[in-house]
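Quick one before lunch.
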Amino acid sequence: MYTKENLIFMDQALNQAKLALKKEEVPVGALIVDNMGNILSKAYNKTEKNKCQTGHAEVLAIQKACKKLKTWRLDNCSIYVSLEPCLMCLGLIQLSRIKALYFGAVSKEFGSGLQEALKHKLYKKDLLIVGGLKETESIDILRKFFMNLRKLRKVNCERKSRILRKGKKEIT
Ligand SMILES: [Zn+2]
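Model of the zinc ion complex:
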């Protein structure tokens, strides 16, 4: 179950995802909050910009929060992510001792299959996981991104074939 406060924080994670959308990154946003409800960090996916998979929103948000608190232990913190974290991010969330994970949409392709992944005994075992917050909004943003991508590919394809046709005409 989740509270009104959880939804407000998820809204902010979604705002981060929207920023990623503007930058033509896969729109995923993350937010870290301490147990007093103070926002420690916000981040959005920068995998394309950083040209590295460590640019996931969760990784960047965790880095910022650790820097702010000057510790890798985020015991009393919660993370909000607009999309179900991948295996790498779930591992990092657990290793960072984060107490609760709230996410929006389930990621069928890259999601970590949370229940299975939580079996790693070395990692934090009592991580509270709540999914499905603002799920529709999260999916809408992702859908927009992939629609734009398809449109862009179509335009590029048409442009290529136009150039090819033009080239042929010039030859004949
Ligand atoms: Zn990830």
